[in-house]
Design a protein that fits this description.
The structure holds two protein chains of two kinds. Chain A is built from twelve helices and eight strands. Chain A is of the alpha/beta class. Chain A is globular, with a radius of gyration of 17 Å. Chain A starts with a strand and ends with a helix. By secondary structure, chain B is α/β, with parallel strands linked by helices. In chain B, β2, α5 and β3 form a beta-alpha-beta unit. Chain B is globular, with a radius of gyration of 22 Å. Classes of the chains: A alpha/beta, B alpha/beta.
């Protein structure tokens, strides 16, 4: 679905059902350099169970007009503008990696319509090393390879996956190639610059859920537990066999955890 | 630094999750038609493409799925769909995006089945083709029409062995926003990964070198995931709502695997050319040794080229690795590890001498296949390409005296000794 935000065209997949702002809405936020297709094994499930679904492409990413946004705070503001533009009510926010930082900011500042937040594979901050940022700007293929290599756990590296015939790593590479160099580099710099995680987490008061991955090399368990600590006793789950790309590597477990949490706190 | 597995490792392991119950190291053969659903919600969500999983083996099967993911990994594609044969793969891939009134620009030098499909069968359904000399890259551009929806060719043409200029033709496709589909059977991803040079879709008859042992028929379509279907309105089967799945927009939902998903959702469901699990198992066994076999194919081919080039009963020899071949430079660019193990040659004395040669060799098998571990020979003009007319024969680079040799993995000294028997018989017939 294309719609206008701040005079620019934005895109959100609606999971195969027309968007209806009268229904409780699950909003999915993707990670650095990715897009809405990252969530295909979660989004349709909710769309066909009496929820509206918005799987956003951030500005500049795949189908949404650019330029990409330079700060996590700016992305949270843009998300708020999306919510206002579509008059979305009763929101469950589901975020992965960079999206979690956006969710932290959004949930700490725009509480009125928020019913729950699910953080997947993230800490309070996402420090990015200079070599990766440099590669994103000057050698995007190397940056993509690094991110996918670190991002996927053993199953991804062996091109196993939940959809028969599909390679998660190769699919991710194709998506990211459409979002370099500018979008990826801008995303990584925004992540690296974000410092407000502790304060934001402490300010969130809606039901919150954290899903971590046991084989996550991008947001290791130690970092994830920092997020848990400052969110003040969120519902916590750790999927031991998954790498960082939980919604793709462990889609069934991830979907069931989201289902139980969202059905409970934001019923359709 | 990335730490992805390399080709040989992927050939052995990609796609397989070791089963948790018994720990079987080899991929199990799931010889089943269907799968027990744990509950109705799971069943409906699989049918509605909300989640992965298996419902019926015409659509997906766990053993076939391992093969699909292994080939996708080796090719660098976003997704793969296996079919009952290479021709089924070609048909499914074409009909996933072309409909009545659409047009293909295709190489004129292809397997006879491919030519017949586009010249005889598809026109009955309103899909037409223009055939272009594969060495005339500009010819591909000049043949594009307003209704062209596909550029198609074999990287190594069968049997003339001319090489497509992948990058140049891919650029023409991109310029006109038309996908470039390559039959990569003769090269396999070991010799060339066509997506690295801009191809958008590859087709394989995995019956051939991928399987490599002549034991199972199979095909595969690999989605490169690198074509922007949404940038044009030319491909409504990918970008517009698909009624059988509640109006799903495959491009929106699945992005880089939208094309493969269309094949799965339509061709495998409505037409049903599915691969048998047993065949998938046999083909997986073959792929485990793809690198080893291709390397031996290459070294034996080099030795046979030297042998035939110096033989007094041979009138000509053709292979892209030879400096005299018109595609030699392209072969060096796209196929640096070897230009395949098919070569062609002429036996002095013409058609009758060629016939005598084929009938008197014994180790080399006279049959209609290529890419077996065993050495194979055939006379294309009277067999594989016999159903195409004289004009198309010339366009395909086929002569009356041509013998196509698929070099196998035997000790090359034994192949050469066998050929000596054939050449002696040919000499008797020709009398020279």
């Amino acid at each position: 679905m294309y719609f206008e935000v701040n005079g620019k065209q934005a895109f959100a997949s609606t999971g195969g059902k027309a968007f209806n702002n009268q229904l409780p809405t699950v909003i999915f936020l993707h990670g650095s350099g990715l897009d809405h297709t990252f969530w295909s094994l979660q989004s349709r499930f909710f769309a066909f169970r009496q929820y509206s679904v918005l799987v956003l492409d951030y500005p500049g990413h795949t189908n949404s007009d650019g330029p990409p946004l330079a700060s996590i705070e700016g992305m949270a503001d843009w998300l708020h503008d999306v919510v206002e533009a579509l008059d979305v009510q009763n929101i469950s926010l589901v975020a992965h990696s960079q999206g979690c930082l956006v969710a932290l900011e959004y949930a700490s500042r725009f509480k009125d319509r928020l019913r729950s937040v699910s953080f997947i594979a993230s800490g309070l901050a996402t420090p990015v090393n200079d070599a990766l940022i440099d590669a994103a700007e000057n050698n995007p293929e190397a940056a993509i390879a690094m991110m996918l290599s670190w991002g996927f756990g053993p199953a991804g590296h062996l091109h196993q996956g939940p959809i028969p015939g599909n390679s998660m790593v190769a699919g991710g590479r194709k998506v990211m190639r459409g979002n370099v160099p500018n979008e990826l580099a801008t995303d990584l710099k925004a992540c690296n610059a974000y410092q407000n995680g502790k304060q934001a987490a402490a300010a969130i008061n809606c039901p919150r859920q954290v899903i971590l991955a046991g084989k996550d090399r991008m947001a290791p368990r130690k970092a994830g537990m920092e997020l848990v600590k400052f969110l003040n006793e969120p519902e916590l789950h750790i999927i031991e066999e998954s790498g960082h790309m939980v919604p793709q590597e462990a889609p069934d477990q991830c979907r069931m955890l989201l289902r139980d949490f969202i059905f409970s706190h934001n019923p359709a | 630094m990335s730490d992805f597995f390399n080709f040989d490792t992927l050939s052995l392991h990609a796609g397989q999750t070791v089963d948790k119950e018994f720990g079987a190291r080899a991929t199990p053969i799931y010889q089943t038609t269907s799968y027990v659903f744990p509950d109705t919600d799971t069943a409906s969500s699989i049918f509605n493409l909300e989640r992965g999983g298996h419902a019926y083996s015409r659509i997906t099967n766990p053993t076939v799925g391992v093969l699909e993911q292994r080939i996708a990994a080796l090719e660098g594609g976003s997704a793969a769909v296996c079919t009952s044969s290479g021709m089924a793969a070609t048909f499914c891939a074409i009909t996933a995006i072309l409909s009545q009134g659409d047009h293909i620009v295709a190489s004129s030098q292809m397997y006879g089945g491919n030519i017949s499909l586009m010249k005889n069968t598809l026109p009955r359904f309103g899909i037409t083709a223009t055939f272009v000399d594969p060495t005339d890259t500009d010819g591909f551009r000049n043949a594009i029409q307003d209704n062209t929806r596909l550029i198609y060719g074999e990287l190594i043409g069968n049997p003339g062995l001319d090489i497509l200029d992948l990058e140049a033709i891919a650029a023409i496709g991109a310029e006109h926003h038309v996908p470039f589909m390559v039959d990569a059977t003769f090269n396999t991803p070991y010799l060339c990964r066509c997506f690295d040079y801009g191809a958008n879709i590859t087709i394989h008859s995995v019956t051939k070198w991928m399987g490599g042992h002549g034991t199972a028929i199979g095909g595969v379509v690999v989605d490169g995931g690198n074509f922007d279907w949404g940038a044009t309105d030319k491909y409504p089967t990918i970008t517009e709502p698909y009624a059988p799945f509640q109006g799903i927009n495959l491009w929106e939902e699945f992005g880089p695997s939208a094309f493969a998903t269309r094949i799965r959702a339509e061709a495998m469901r409505d037409i049903g050319p599915s691969m048998a699990p047993m065949n998938a198992f046999l083909l997986l066994q073959g792929i485990e040794t793809l690198s080893l076999r291709m390397e031996k194919h290459r070294s034996n081919t080099e030795k046979m080229l030297e042998y035939l080039s110096n033989h007094d009963r041979v009138s000509w020899v053709s292979h892209p690795s030879m400096p005299t071949h018109s595609s030699h430079e392209l072969a060096k660019k796209y196929l640096p590890k070897g230009a395949g193990s098919i070569l062609s040659f002429g036996v002095k004395g013409g058609r009758d001498a060629g016939k005598a040669f084929i009938e008197n060799v014994e180790l080399a098998s006279h049959l209609a296949n290529v890419g077996d571990a065993k050495t194979l020979i055939i006379h294309p003009a009277t067999t594989t390409h016999s159903r195409i007319d004289a004009e198309a024969l010339v366009a395909a680079g086929i002569t009356e005296d041509m013998i196509r040799l698929s070099v196998g993995l035997e000790d090359v000294r034994d192949i050469q000794a066998d050929f000596e028997t054939g050449f002696r018989a040919a000499k008797k017939v020709s009398g020279a």
